[in-house]
């Protein structure tokens, strides 16, 4: 189904290949080249937006593993990102450890905290689990605000990322760093889904009782999903900390967590493409909203006071609602339909 | 002892306000299984409508209340008709995300119409506090507690004896069977949204008469529902019991622990620690229905 | 399926209506009465523009402050361009974006402003400045925060504060209290009730830093969330500590809850209550009820509406013409004043370095704006707030506040401008590690 007409698989290796045809390879390489030459023709602002998207993507990929593959609802993802961000900030800022150590520790720390808050998932399901993770978010943020090592309410400054002697102090160099890690994460997630672990996750998502009967260790795999999901959140947090340069717990609000869920669902859960499309969609929409108020105010100086402030969130909401009504299965589903119809064109059957 | 009494009374009354928001959440969850993330936005918008009627238009209190309740019914109908019904039979998470979009829309709408964004309601209840032994409690909290008890009573009776209420319970149990019996499931959903909007309107009015109309109402709504989950998502009695439990825990817990540990703001974290512990012991909340699963 | 089509139709109609209604709203909205005849014949500004970057919280959680602030500075820039002919003939071009009070957006906005060639940038809030400041400091891009937290300006780098920060509020109030209100013997006992974010902790840090020096004993420190609906239990503890004075560092709604609960517990009237400037607005009086907050003190760094200062007439005229709903809003004044300060900075920079250097909008231009503009400031801001003047080692531009009191429901000034000396956070490196770098 997913292959062009006349392409047949004669070996397992071919059957398992992600990029099956020469066109696939060509398009894929073209896309990578396009992405990695972006600094040549984008200004700092666009690169900044791309960096933000890259960081968000890493976290969203994590959430997709947790929610999309394993079916464990987490409404506290921003909290786990905060754990990573603060771990990196404290290790590289206060203790002056190298960036890479901070990055790995951020992932591990967030993963461990995720493990801890994932324990209820053994007994709790669905929205009850969602509430437990909301609680996790509030508890994490509370601790960050009350520990002295994290700078408390005031926040903490974070130095630039650096590897060896090389300091990532320009937007372009940060872009390469973030995009490399993001591409690796997407690649990891895509492959994870095709291993025994990924299949176990899907089995748990579809029916955890059945999965258990089939011999899948629920305890191990649910916690593994939490660990991987939160590990990626921690990596994203570390990059975010180095990119913004200043961390404050208020940046990791509960609405941010909910927005992450929105990204994964709008993109399409349980596919590698979903988070990518969802992140691009939401972040671009947000950036667009940034310009709406200035444009309106300058075009129509006599607008009523609340117009510019109110219209942006209203449009944001309407677009999300419309989108879900038109495409409840997410953007990646639409993309599949589009690909199929493109292949079959002009004969629709 | 005086402090104990003070903490307990505060805890119970504040908890009842949480319970009120929780009721609104449970109403929708009970009939359709949708988690209403737009709750905060609803609380916000109805508080502002009430403010507009009472202060800006200058209607008397009872009339503005009636106007708000009628508008709440209308809102509930519209939301169900235009946002949720098109998504029936779609993945449940998509429905939940639709309410997220709705939330943004309602927040924007509130700013759009009331750009001042912060206002105070005139006191709805006498400002002199009630004295109970050595403790004091503001009349606003007492009235809020009483009103939420009354609402709880009405809703319980409605669900037990009214035809529609019984149909709603049946829908929550098994949608397919209910449809086969000829009960219009769509009108059940729309009734539950209308009721939920009315409850959140009342909750919004009570909260904003205490802490003013600000954007913070959104987060209050969000926090309150997560707190009330403790009782069980599909249980009214759970809401009405869990609210005061949480209220008591946060007031008593922080009242006694703060001087010992020396950390401020314990009140804001204790409820969440309790949630995690309770969910671990009773995964469906204190009064939630335990689902027996089949493969 | 039918209902989905219906809904799509409804949505599309909404979007179309939203677009169509905008010009209509513009036409029917408050008729833009052109400000009465310009007093001085102005030379039309035809020279190249000076770019003034603004990151404004126009939407989102903080829009209650951000929206009037945005209107204030945009109106002021309109006034400067239309009536004063810009800066020496160069019009000011406001490059502004809406950050929605979202840190990640603020970070992209500061980058956008740097690549747009803005000469400096301003933010309304301390949180947005904190999200932007490291990026700006690293690039040497000068920024000014209207409301700021001590961490924005300590240690001094490229970020400046338009007005005294939350910590200075406490210092000024404490000085006023000791000089004018405190009549007892020994050390007055102070209780603090702080919002659980930098706004609150700013006041708390200042209190920790200054308590010994001023001779004040801190007997209780409590914190609350922005969405609190009851502080009875923390107030019970504060009551047990028997304080003489309670200082609230917060925003209007929670401050109102704290004061109401103090009233119910019989703590107030009795103790003296002081509020930091973020909370001391008409909204707080409205939420708590005028009877309850009668006699509460607060500090505020700007003048009030209707005061007899040189800048008042034009500001009132523009506010009433373009944003009548904002009339009476204190944040509008803050922000109008910010634009005047910004214009003065640009004037100094143009006169000292010449337009050509500034037009580049690069690191050299930023350095020039900082060295020859911001650091050479000596300007009275037409009386809208205390004079702005840079002193080495202190990145706060305006350093004075006034003490106000609620008298029969109105916020009334009870003191002249009080100087808020810089608080030496760096002397306590164990408590405030951020103050030393």
Word description of this protein:
- The complex is a heterotrimer of chains A (349), B (295) and C (437).
- Chain A has one domain (42-344): ABC transporter involved in vitamin B12 uptake, BtuC (Orthogonal Bundle).
- Chain A contains 15 helices and four strands.
- Chain A has helices at residues 12-16, 22-36, 38-41, 44-69, 77-94, 99-118, 126-146, 171-192, 196-206, 208-213, 218-244, 254-267, 273-299, 305-326, 331-344, and strands at residues 156-157, 162-163, 166-167, 246-247.
- In chain A, strand 2 (162-163) and strand 3 form a beta hairpin.
- Chain A is globular, with a radius of gyration of 21 Å.
- In chain B, helix 1 runs parallel beside helix 5 (139-161).
- Chain B is built from eleven helices and two strands, in the order ααααββααααααα.
- In chain B, strand 1 and strand 2 (135-137) form a beta hairpin.
- Chain B has 295 residues and is mostly helical.
- Chain C is α/β, with parallel strands linked by helices.
- In chain C, strands 6, 7, 8, 9, 10, 13, 14 and 15 form an eight-stranded mixed β-sheet that branches. A five-stranded parallel β-sheet of chain C has the order 2-1-3-4-5, sandwiched between helices.
- In chain C, helix 4 (126-139) links the parallel strand 3 (120-123) and strand 4.
- Chain C has two domains: 50-164 and 306-398, 3-Layer(aba) Sandwich (Rossmann fold), CATH 3.40.50; 167-300 and 403-435, Response regulator (Rossmann fold, 3-Layer(aba) Sandwich).
- Chain C contains 15 helices and 15 strands.
- Classes of the chains: A mainly alpha (349), B mainly alpha (295), C alpha/beta (437).
- At the A-C interface, helix 4, strand 1, helix 11, helix 13 and helix 14 of A face helix 1, helix 2, strand 2, helix 3 and helix 4 of C.
């Amino acid at each position: 189904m997913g292959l062009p007409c006349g392409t047949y698989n004669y070996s397992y290796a071919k059957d398992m290949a992600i990029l099956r045809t020469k066109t696939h390879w060509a398009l894929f390489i073209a896309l990578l080249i396009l992405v990695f030459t972006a600094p040549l023709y984008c200004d700092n602002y666009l690169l900044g937006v791309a960096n933000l998207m890259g960081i968000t993507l890493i976290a969203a990929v994590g959430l997709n593993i947790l929610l999309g593959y394993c079916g464990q609802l987490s409404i506290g993802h921003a909290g786990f990102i905060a754990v990573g961000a603060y771990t990196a900030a404290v290790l590289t800022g206060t203790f002056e450890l190298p960036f890479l150590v901070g990055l790995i520790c951020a992932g591990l720390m967030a993963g461990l905290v995720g493990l801890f808050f994932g324990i209820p998932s053994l007994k709790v399901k669905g929205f009850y689990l969602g509430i437990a993770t909301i609680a996790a978010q509030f508890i994490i943020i509370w601790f960050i605000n009350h520990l002295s090592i994290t700078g408390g309410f005031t926040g903490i400054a974070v130095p630039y990322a650096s590897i060896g002697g090389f300091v990532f102090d320009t937007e372009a160099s940060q872009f390469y760093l973030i995009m490399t890690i993001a591409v690796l994460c997407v690649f990891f997630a895509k492959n994870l889904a095709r291993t025994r672990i990924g299949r176990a996750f899907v089995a748990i998502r579809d029916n955890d009782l059945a999965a258990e009967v089939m011999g899948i260790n629920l305890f191990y795999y649910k916690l593994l999903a939490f660990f991987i999901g939160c590990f990626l959140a921690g990596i994203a947090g570390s990059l975010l900390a180095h990119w913004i340069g200043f961390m404050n717990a208020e940046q990791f609000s509960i609405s941010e967590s909910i927005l992450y869920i929105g990204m994964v669902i709008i993109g399409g859960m349980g596919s590698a493409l979903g988070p990518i499309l969802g992140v691009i969609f939401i972040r671009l929409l947000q950036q667009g909203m940034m310009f709406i108020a200035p444009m309106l105010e300058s075009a129509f100086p006599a607008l009523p006071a609340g117009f510019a402030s109110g219209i942006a969130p209203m449009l944001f909401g309407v677009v999300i609602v419309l989108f879900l009504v038109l495409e409840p299965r997410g953007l990646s589903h639409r993309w599949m339909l589009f690909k199929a119809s493109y292949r079959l064109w002009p004969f629709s059957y | 002892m005086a402090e104990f009494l003070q903490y307990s009374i505060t805890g119970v009354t504040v908890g009842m306000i949480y319970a009120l928001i929780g009721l609104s959440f449970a109403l929708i969850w009970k009939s359709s299984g949708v988690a209403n993330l737009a709750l905060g936005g609803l609380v916000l918008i109805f508080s502002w409508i009430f403010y507009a009627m009472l202060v800006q238009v200058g209607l008397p209190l009872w009339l503005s209340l009636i106007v708000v309740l009628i508008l709440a019914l209308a809102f509930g109908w519209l939301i169900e008709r235009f946002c949720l019904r098109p998504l029936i039979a779609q993945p449940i998470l998509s429905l939940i995300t639709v309410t997220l979009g709705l939330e943004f829309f309602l927040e924007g709408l509130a700013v759009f119409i009331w750009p001042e964004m912060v206002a105070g309601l005139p006191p709805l209840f006498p400002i002199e506090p009630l004295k109970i032994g050595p403790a004091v409690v503001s009349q606003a909290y007492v009235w809020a507690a009483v009103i939420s008890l009354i609402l709880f009573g009405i809703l319980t009776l409605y669900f037990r004896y009214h035809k529609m209420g019984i149909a709603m319970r049946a829908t929550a149990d098994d949608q397919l069977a209910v449809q086969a019996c000829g009960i219009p499931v769509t009108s059940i959903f729309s009734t539950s949204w209308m009721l939920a909007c009315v409850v959140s309107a009342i909750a919004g009015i009570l909260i904003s008469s205490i802490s003013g109309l600000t954007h913070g109402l959104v987060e209050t709504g969000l926090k309150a529902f997560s707190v009330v989950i403790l009782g069980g998502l599909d249980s009214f009695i759970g809401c009405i019991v869990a609210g005061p439990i949480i209220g008591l825990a946060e007031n008593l817990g922080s009242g006694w622990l703060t001087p010992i540990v020396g950390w401020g703001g314990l009140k804001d974290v204790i409820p969440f620690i309790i949630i995690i512990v309770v969910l671990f012991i009773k995964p469906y909340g204190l009064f939630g229905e335990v689902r027996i699963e089949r493969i | 399926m039918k209902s989905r089509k219906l809904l799509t139709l409804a949505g599309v109609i909404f979007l179309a209506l939203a677009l169509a209604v905008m010009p209509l709203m513009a036409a029917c909205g408050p008729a833009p009465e052109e400000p009465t005849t310009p007093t001085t014949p102005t030379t039309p500004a035809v020279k190249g523009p000076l770019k003034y970057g603004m990151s404004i919280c126009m939407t989102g959680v903080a829009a209650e402050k951000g929206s009037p602030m945005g209107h204030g500075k945009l109106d002021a820039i309109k006034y400067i361009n239309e009536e004063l002919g810009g800066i020496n003939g160069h019009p000011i071009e406001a490059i502004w974006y809406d950050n929605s009070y979202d840190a990640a957006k603020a970070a992209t906005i500061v980058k956008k402003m740097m690549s747009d060639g803005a000469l400096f940038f301003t933010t309304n809030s301390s949180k947005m400045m904190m999200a932007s400041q490291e990026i700006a400091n690293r690039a040497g891009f000068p920024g000014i925060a209207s409301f700021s937290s001590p961490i924005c300006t300590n240690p001094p780098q490229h970020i400046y504060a338009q007005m005294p920060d939350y910590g200075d509020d406490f210092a000024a109030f404490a000085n006023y209290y000791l000089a004018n209100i405190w009549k007892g013997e020994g050390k007055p006992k102070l209780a603090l009730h702080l919002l659980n974010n930098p706004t609150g902790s700013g006041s708390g840090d200042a209190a920790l830093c200054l308590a010994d020096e001023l001779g004040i004993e801190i007997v209780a420190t409590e914190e609350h969330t922005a969405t609190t609906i009851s502080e009875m239990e923390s107030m019970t503890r504060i009551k047990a500590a028997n304080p003489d004075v309670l200082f609230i560092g917060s925003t209007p709604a929670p401050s109102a809850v704290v004061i109401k609960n103090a009233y119910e517990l019989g703590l107030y009237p009795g103790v003296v209550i002081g509020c930091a400037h973020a909370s001391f607005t008409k909204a707080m009086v409205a939420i708590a009820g005028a009877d309850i907050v009668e006699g509460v003190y607060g500090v505020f760094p700007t003048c009030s509406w209707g005061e007899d200062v040189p800048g008042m007439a034009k500001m009132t005229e523009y506010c009433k013409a373009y944003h009548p709903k904002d009339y009476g809003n204190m944040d509008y004044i803050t922000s109008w004043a910010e634009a005047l300060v910004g214009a003065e900075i640009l004037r100094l920079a143009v006169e000292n370095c010449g337009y050509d250097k500034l037009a580049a909008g690069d690191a050299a231009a930023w350095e020039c704006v900082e060295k020859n503009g911001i650091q050479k400031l000596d300007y009275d801001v037409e009386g809208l707030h205390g004079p702005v003047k840079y002193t080495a080692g202190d990145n706060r531009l305006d350093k004075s506040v006034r003490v106000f009191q609620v008298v029969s429901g109105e916020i009334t000034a009870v003191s002249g401008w009080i100087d808020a000396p810089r608080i030496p956070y760096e002397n306590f490196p164990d408590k405030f590690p951020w103050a030393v770098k």
